[in-house]
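Sequence and structure are kept together here, with a separate record for every protein. An example record follows, reproduced without changes.
>
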Amino acid sequence: MERYRSSRIIVCVGQGAWEHEAIEDTRGLDYRFREKSIPAWVDFWGYDVTTDWPWWYVQMNYFLGRLYG
């Protein structure tokens, strides 16, 4: 657990039309992180965000910029 607690963990999910299952899974993962005191950045993006390459590109740049900017 200490290795997880000392890591940088980011989980991101969009809330677009086909993301329902991913949203529920991400909420469950967020709950487990909190339950085990693992600091993780769990981020729910907008209703226009889908699981697709253009959004992954935007998200990667966003999170890498915040982590290493």
